[in-house]
Specification:
Elements (H helix, E strand, L loop, with lengths): L5 H4 L3 H7 L4 E4 L2 E12 L16 H4 L5 E6 L3 E7 L7 E12 L1 H8 L11 H8 L15 E4 L10 E4 L13 E4 L27
Antiparallel strand pairs: 1-2, 1-6, 2-5, 2-8, 3-4, 4-5, 7-8
Helix pairs in contact: 4-5
The structure holds a DNA duplex.
Length: 206
DNA sequence: CATGGGATTGACT
DNA sequence: GTCAATCCCATGC
């Protein structure tokens, strides 16, 4: 596996969000496969870049292939990959990973044992990987936090899409993407998500 | 300089 | 289901 080149990110952010599924994030000895993402673009009000170029949003408008890390609710660091050509404010939020390596390190950082609780959320995965605000604006190809390419394309139907989580504006856009049936996807599960090994989700009320 | 609002999580009812 | 924790930054005076 090789680091994703800048050209990979210099495309429509929704395409990048979909294609980041299955890629690997490495920080130190900890690594995980991306199983859930969300796209954000300056043209819609849920994106931080919607307000224009400020000190906070500067990385979003910078060159593609770098990290945008910010603090959420005063507690969590959230990791994004900056996309689209320089000058366009857009990024993909990494929402969940399937742990691959350094799982004991992740357990230690998270303070929980259950493997499905290590990286099943945007705040959880940064804590598990040890990603912090100091990684803001670092290069995802050559810096301490690296995004590695996946080997091949997904089968049709492997990816589900749905509305983004936790936003109040532009909530109708189906810009959340996840690997269908993967147990490391965060809550709430996207529409159409199906648990692995089951024919269909239980629908009856009682 | 003061204020208000989050791209969340975990604990509790 | 509800709610508090707690930091950064954009905005307005």
């Amino acid at each position: 596996m090789h680091p994703l080149p800048a050209e990979f990110y210099a495309r429509p952010v929704v395409d990048v969000a979909r294609e980041l599924l299955g890629c690997t994030i490495v920080h130190g000895r900890a690594a995980g496969m991306i199983v859930e993402t969300e796209a954000y673009h300056e043209g819609e009000p849920a994106c931080h870049a919607f307000v224009g170029l400020t000190e906070r949003t500067r990385p979003l408008f910078g060159p593609p292939g770098r990290a945008y890390v910010y603090r959420s609710y005063g507690i969590h660091a959230l990791l994004n990959a900056v996309c689209e050509p320089e000058g366009v404010g857009a990024a993909v939020l990494i929402r969940a990973l399937e742990p691959i390596e350094g799982i004991e390190e992740m357990r230690s950082r998270r303070g929980v044992a259950d493997e499905c609780e290590l990286c099943s959320g945007p705040g959880k995965l940064t804590q598990a990987l040890g990603v912090e605000l100091e990684h803001n604006d670092s290069d995802l190809g050559t810096g301490p936090v690296r995004f590695l390419a996946r080997a091949r394309r997904w089968e049709p139907g492997a990816v589900t899409a749905g509305p983004r989580v936790g936003i109040t504006r532009a909530a109708e856009l189906p810009w959340r993407f996840a690997l269908a049936g993967n147990g490391h996807v965060s809550r709430p599960r996207p529409l159409g998500w199906r648990p692995a090994g089951r024919a269909a989700p239980a629908r009856s009320r009682g």
